[in-house]
Each structure stands twice: as structure tokens, then as C-alpha cells.
Amino acid sequence: MEKSFSERVAEAKAEVPAISPQAARERKEQDPNILFIDPRNAADISASTGIIPDALNLPLGRLNESADADLPGELASRSRPIVTACQAGPMGALAAHALKKRGFTNVCFMDGGTQGWLNAGYPTRK
């Protein structure tokens, strides 16, 4: 039997670290190599919270289904620091887990997603 969305999110959260929006912002300011990934569809981003400035929009479906050769160049290094963030957190956790399963070694998800980012007073773009 296939796992439910909630079960997959719980599994992801158990295997991938979460960071707060404040910690994510600090990492973004301290490390110019850090990559933020938003795993939502572009329409969902523009219809809701927007995206963190300079984040890469890489939908979860593409992340799960793409061959390594089809991934964007920003993901060439498996050790590049990556923070995933969706609107509220669950899809970000799934994206971070998918990256971890693909061999990425420095990945986490932002607890609270872009809504938490906005609530902390940080900007997004639509």
C-alpha cells in the first residue's frame, strides 16, 4: 500500500534536518554558494506567498522524476548547501528528502516555508 502524503512528510522530516527562517536567512547572508529551492509549481508560487529572492523553482515532480543529467546546473555539486522551502513546509521536506536520497549531502528544509519567511519580515518576489 502506498504511503499517504502525511506519512511521506513525517518520514522526510525524520530524515532531513529543518531550520528556521531566521537560520536560513543567516546562512543565505553568510554563504553565497547556498541554494534555495522552491518545489512548488510556478502558478502556486505566484498565487500565494511568492518565492524567496534568488531561489530556484524546481517542482517536486521534476525533482523526483528527472534523470541526473536533466537536473539544472545549479545541482551539479552533491555537496552544495541547499535549503528547500515551499509555502508552509511539508513539500519542502519532501523535496529535501528527495535530494538526500539522490546523494545530496548538505540539504535541509525551512520549517514554516515561505510563509514563515514572510512572517519573519523577509521579502519574497512573485
Task: Give a summary of the structure in a few sentences.
The protein has 126 residues and is α/β, with parallel strands linked by helices.
| Rg from Cα | 13 Å
Give the number of helices: 6
Which class of secondary structure composition applies to the elements? alpha/beta
So, CATH architecture? 3-Layer(aba) Sandwich
CATH class: Alpha Beta
Give the N-terminus to C-terminus distance in angstroms.
Answer: 38 Å
Strand order across the largest sheet = 1-5-4-2-3
In N-to-C order, the SSE pattern is HEHEHEHEHEH
- From the 3D structure, determine the CATH topology: Oxidized Rhodanese, domain 1
Number of self-contained structural domains:
1
- Average per-residue pLDDT, rounded, comes to 95
Percentage beta strand: 5-15%
Low-confidence stretches: none
Describe the sheet with the most strands: 5 strands, parallel
* SS elements, strand count: 5
CATH superfamily: Rhodanese-like domain
Judging from the principal axes of the Cα atoms, what is the shape?
Answer: globular
Measured as a percent range, the helix fraction is 40-55%
